[in-house]
Amino acid sequence: MILAISLLLIYGASAWVMLRSVDKPRLDPIAWTLSLAAIVAHSDAIVHMMRINGPFSIGLFEAISLLAWTLAVLACLICIERQNRVLGAILLASAALGAAATGTGHTPAEPSRPCCWCFSIGDCAPGASPICRRSCRRSTPSKGSCFV
Question: Cα(57)–Cα(55) distance, rounded to whole angstroms?
Fold first, then answer.
């Protein structure tokens, strides 16, 4: 959650400074530094989320975060021309809102089901799922085999 708030603040500051840099060219280096720092931090957050949390399943919040990253990169390309910086600032502000979803609501991929251990026909291991129970009734038991 701290990361999402940090990204929101960095993107918000970059949008504000990028907007102010239209009239004040001396703010250009600060605007570009903040924008690129926000994109690098967001990229790091996405990669970290993929490595730490295992398989990456894209839910609503992950999709919003990836959209925010794309908007930020597009904003940087648009902001190269000084006359388009207002549009770029709007895109950076939108990226700030989307980056607030980074890391929240991550749903890891569904773990694989454990094997169904049948000791005799109709005798499943305690806590076996209904699928295992059906397969135990139909299968010939074999020590150490899975009947899923």
Answer: 6
β-partners of residue 123 are 120
Asked whether 96 and 7 are in contact (CB, 8 A), the reply is: yes
Beta carbons of 132 and 116 less than 8 angstroms apart:
yes
The domain locations on the chain are 2-99, 112-148
Mean pLDDT (the chain, rounded) = 78
Enumerate residues 6+ apart whose C-beta is below 8 A from 68.
Answer: 11, 42, 94, 95, 96, 97, 98, 99, 101, 102
pLDDT tens sequence across 76-101: 999 999 999 999 999 999 999 988 88
Instruction: For residue 65, count other CB atoms closer than 10 A to its CB.
Output: 27
Contacts of 91 (CB under 8 A, 6+ apart): 71, 72, 74, 75, 78
* CA–CA dist 37, 25 (Å, integer): 19
Residue 47 confidence (pLDDT): 85
Low-confidence ranges of the chain (pLDDT < 50): 110-114, 139, 141-148
Cα(83)–Cα(89) distance, integer angstroms: 11
